[in-house]
Amino acid sequence: MISFVNVSKFYDYHTVLRSVSFTVQKGEMVFITGPSGAGKSTLLKLIYRDEEADEGEIRVGNFTVTSIRPSDIPHLRRNIGIVFQDFKLLRNLTAYDNVAIALRIRGIGEREIRQRVSEALKRVNLRHVADSNPKALSGGEQQRIAIARAIVAEPQVILADEPTGNLDPNTAIDIMNLLREINLNGSTIIVATHNRELFRGTGKRVLSIDSNRIIKEEQG
Amino acid sequence: MHISYGIKTAVKGMAHEKWINLLSIMTVASSLLIMIFACLLLYNTEHIASTLHERFGMVAFLDDRLQASEIQAIIERIKQRQEIEGLRYISKEDALKELKERLKEDSYIFDGLDYNPLSPAIELRLKRQYITPQQVASTAKELKAIKGVSEVYSAEKVAEIIEAFYRSLSNFSLILLSALGAGIIFVVYSTVKILFYRRKEEIETIKLLGATRGFIRMPFLVEGGIIGLFGGLLSVGLSLLVYFAVTYRLSSVFPLLETILYPTEIALSFPLSGAILGLLGAFIAVGRLRF
To answer: What is the pTM of this model?
Structure first.
């Protein structure tokens, strides 16, 4: 589903990632861990082409991300659901519209949008806050809305960048349980986190990044 | 799909940022109002000027000795020329009669004459597009070459004035309308640019969700179009108010004002022109989006 072959990324004279190679199979859930500044977020950004790799090849499904045309980037991103640490919800929209925007972007009709958004909100147990503004919701609820937005279009891959970074430990466990449940339904998920508690005992593959490269591969 | 999303988002965005949008609409309306007044001035001036060419005359004097049939042949020949709008034959007798009428009490100067010194003539009216100094000169030369025509009188100076007047009128209108049009584009450009930067974070997010350039641009283009359209409607409304106030209220004091015309084309075309200019301003403001 996702493959990195000798991928390097430099910022000016500073190396962020050097010769990183790994693959993620379809339906797999993988954790990327490492200290702050190790390059976890950059690695995810390279997948959804928010950053451009300087060396190597990245493939996501049928897309070769490293040689993609700018006009195809939106189509690549439509195959990926992203969950951000800071949620990135649109403040002037309701929870419903924040989820619906992922479908509107894809040109889906309003009737289908209503049905799919309702299902997605039900999966994250937040159907009752559909008309609320994100500002009125707790951090955990906001992240659940962001997850609903990431899954509503049923993308092939879900990327979560420190999804529990801004949440208390109990809410963090809830969010991780939710992501695992989504994975059990067949979605490929990559979670970047510095919090080792999140993958301990999960039995999922963990890639540790340090000094700009993958230094260890283990089972959580 | 993108269009309906664009309209909804633009309307929501405009309601959210109502003051800046209102200010922009009013600025666009002011510029369009000046453009409407300029157009009305030009339209009415041209309307008045269109009667100017009727005052332009050309007279072909004929030989005294021509027979009626020869005169008729000359008239027919001149009539067939493409630049002639109309003509009137003035016989020797009619010419003298007209002159006496014009001179009124001074007409006694002809009393001592036992013959008519005036020549028969053909008074010509040229079509408007042929009243240029060059064309008038060449027509005069060609008429003079006709056998039986002794002299041709043409008011070339009048032709020069008419031509210069039209030239400066069209130059002035071109400069004024271009300047104000550019002004409107700039106003909408600035407004949309500000709104675009205010929504930068939102745009970055929807880019990451897979939005295409068209999807991102659409609300801003619609917004620019709406600003222009509303500016246009407002300017037409205001100009009609001023027009009716001037023609109905002030015409009792200045009767000439009653003759001012307000063509329907202006009322219809200005909201549309506003929308197009607004759309153009927004298009430039959004510019190239990078992924």
So the answer is: 0.74
